[in-house]
Design brief:
By secondary structure, this protein is of the alpha/beta class. The chain folds into three domains: 147 residues, Methylthiotransferase, N-terminal domain (Rossmann fold), CATH 3.40.50; 220 residues, pyruvate-formate lyase- activating enzyme (Alpha-Beta Horseshoe), CATH 3.80.30; 56 residues, Beta Barrel (OB fold (Dihydrolipoamide Acetyltransferase, E2P)). The chain has 13 helices and 19 strands. Helix 12 links the parallel strand 13 and strand 14. The protein is globular and about 60 Å long. The protein starts with 10 loop residues before the first helix and ends with a strand. The structure holds S-adenosyl-L-homocysteine (SAH), iron/sulfur cluster (SF4) and FE3-S4 cluster.
Length: 470
């Protein structure tokens, strides 16, 4: 059923939280420097920016290094087993540090914490963790910290709130003055059979378009050059709320604001509408770059994955966008070793990758996630088989990437300059409209500007060029 309005948390709740932040800042016996360690996707990266915003209000400043911080918070991911293991490995590393610095505080939050029983497990297995909380109660961070510091006891709070809520007006500390993330929707309703995200992030809920447009206007006024709209499935933006704009309509309105670049992710192929393609083609500021995860090239597997499109439908969408936006740069996510995947079925992924010609692809070995449908399926694929398959797929994509990058040589691209190259201070690095890194000789005063660069050569995953008259 559609909601009549977005389910924002009441303004009083956020005000109360800001009160806890001030109360925390007034404590003398509290941590003063922090380090936030982030795993996972852009959603998590943006959550960490909110954590940092709250930490600043709580009177804390970033530590020079993780080793010297008074407070370390791990914002975790659990989408694949290795993501979870990496996060936990680093938490354990802190155990030793805490022996020599008993006043060090440690918190664990994020998607991993939302898995059933994880709160208790953390308490049991990691006695040096002071605070653990989930994704649904991130906004309560200051209150929970205050509780932990004042009581000198360990605090665990994870809300099993599938419907979720939307916190507005929390402080944010953005990591760049030129780029900004804007979350447009939370959660996911798709339940792809391999994926844990819908279980740990709750149901789809769209922020009110008025809030999003206001945030974008504000960022434009602050001089932000590029915004990235975030959601697990941005194409279904607004569908959960009565009378809300569609994603294409939202994009069209954002395009009017005048921010130089608009990007978005992730698009689910099943909801990629003609309306969206039209808006992209007609817009001034929407980048011609589309991340369109296909996951697999075989129809039996796609159906088992519950992706709700066929290979043919996907290819039809690719053709539709290329017809209207011929220079569109396509990227994707691919899974190998899904339960029951035969050699022939895997070959269908390889042939699809060749057929589409992605600029780049993220390739993953299927990782069973407890509680998902695929985890209980028979015929789980042996690690050595998956490894061989992924190596082959990576090699195929590498060649395609090289050819795609080579085809850009001679073109003039606009590049948003990010930083001086780490290896050579005379070289600047930035992203072109297609989200590909471009290196070119330049000076640091260009950082934050959009410059025109003639592409002169292509590397494995980056381009090289020379600044032309702007
Ligand atoms: N909402 C996005 C993706 C979120 S997760 C989408 O639908 O495209 C990012 C990527 O991780 C997915 O696209 C998928 O390729 C991969 N992934 C998710 N669960 C996985 C699992 N259990 N094993 C391996 N890869 C997985
Ligand atoms: Fe996971 Fe599928 Fe939702 Fe993406 S759309 S987050 S892959 S369930
Ligand atoms: Fe990971 Fe959570 Fe993102 S599981 S991929 S951090 S939504």
């Amino acid at each position: 059923m559609k909601r009549t309005r977005a389910i924002e948390l009441p303004a009083e709740e956020i005000e109360a939280q800001k009160g806890w932040m001030r109360e925390f800042a007034a404590l003398t016996d509290r941590p003063h420097t922090y380090c936030v360690v982030t795993y996972g996707c852009q959603m998590n990266a943006h959550d960490s920016e909110t954590l940092e915003g709250m930490l600043a209000e709580m009177g804390m400043t970033p530590a020079k290094s993780r080793e010297t911080a008074d407070f370390v918070v791990f914002n975790t991911c659990c989408v694949r087993d290795n993501a979870q293991r990496r996060a936990l490995g680093n938490v354990v590393w802190l155990k030793e540090l805490k022996k020599s610095r008993p006043e060090l505080m440690v918190a664990v939050c994020g998607c991993m914490m939302q898995q059933p029983g994880m709160g208790e497990q953390i308490l049991r297995q990691y006695p040096f963790v002071d605070l653990a909380f989930g994704t649904h109660n991130l906004y309560r961070f200051a209150q929970l910290m205050l509780q932990a510091v004042k009581s000198r006891r360990r605090v665990v709070e994870v809300l099993q709130d599938d419907e979720g809520s939307i916190p507005e007006e929390l402080p944010v500390r953005r990591s760049s003055p030129h780029h900004a993330y804007i979350t447009i929707m939370y959660g996911c309703n798709n339940f792809c059979s391999y994926c844990i995200v819908p279980y740990v992030r709750g149901r789809e809920r769209s922020r009110a378009s008025a809030r999003i447009l206001e945030e974008a206007r504000q960022l434009h006024a602050e001089g932000v050059k590029e915004i990235m709209l975030l959601g697990q499935n941005v194409n279904s933006y607004g569908l959960d709320t009565e009378g809300e704009l569609s994603f294409a309509q939202l994009l069209a309105q954002l395009d009017q604001i005048g921010i130089e670049r608009i990007r978005f992710m992730t698009s689910h192929p099943k909801d990629l509408s003609d309306e969206l393609i039209e808006v992209m083609a007609a817009s001034k500021h929407i980048c011609h770059a589309l991340h369109l995860p296909v996951q697999h090239g075989n129809n039996r597997i796609l159906q088992s994955m519950n992706r709700r499109y066929t290979r043919e439908k996907y290819l039809e969408r690719v053709a539709a966008i290329r017809a209207k936006v011929p220079d569109v740069s396509l990227t994707t996510d691919l899974i190998v070793g899904y339960p029951g995947e035969t050699e022939e079925e895997f070959e269908d992924t390889c042939s699809l990758v060749r057929e589409v010609g992605y600029d780049s692809a993220f390739t993953f070995i299927y990782s069973p996630r407890v509680g998902t449908r695929a985890a209980d399926m028979p015929d789980q694929i042996l690690e050595e088989v998956s490894s061989r398959r992924i190596q082959k797929l990576i090699a195929i994509q590498k060649e395609i990437t090289h050819a795609r990058l080579a085809s850009y040589v001679g073109q003039i691209h606009s590049v948003l300059v990010d930083e001086a190259s780490k290896r050579d201070a005379g070289q600047m690095a930035g992203k072109n409209e297609y989200n590909i890194t471009v290196n070119f000789p330049g000076t640091p005063d260009l950082i934050g500007q959009i410059v025109r660069v003639k592409i002169t050569s292509a590397g494995e995953s980056t381009l090289r060029g020379e600044c032309v008259e702007n």
